[in-house]
Recover the amino acids of this structure.
């Protein structure tokens, strides 16, 4: 039993050490990737580009949307009053909010909207 417990603790400690090192290395790589994405986005904006194809792969812009609730009570009352049940999930439906926004030119009350232009890179 002594050997098993000792071995278990040693392996658990080694696993924790490796996990910490891995997370640190991944964080460093993520930081560099973020900087490259930022530079690509600046270059795309400067030159009015939407995508670029290279021998290594293609980089292209895309837009990410999100709809979050600022005030649940207000949103729920709005949904109930207008019978817009397709907007209701545990979160609001991004596509239903986007459709409402397009049809009415504004957001339903109590909704936050965010658009983020991102850079994507895929292998050739």
């Amino acid at each position: 039993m002594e050997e098993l417990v000792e071995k278990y603790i040693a392996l658990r400690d080694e696993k924790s050490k490796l996990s910490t090192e891995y997370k640190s290395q991944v964080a460093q790589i993520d930081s560099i990737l973020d900087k490259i994405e930022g530079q690509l986005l600046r270059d795309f904006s400067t030159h009015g580009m939407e995508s670029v194809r290279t021998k290594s792969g293609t980089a292209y812009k895309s837009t990410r949307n999100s709809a979050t609730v600022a005030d649940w009570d207000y949103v729920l009352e709005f949904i109930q009053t207008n019978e817009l049940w397709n907007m209701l999930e545990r979160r609001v439906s991004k596509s239903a909010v986007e459709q409402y926004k397009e049809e009415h030119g504004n957001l339903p009350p109590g909704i936050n909207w965010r658009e983020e232009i991102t850079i994507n890179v895929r292998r050739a």
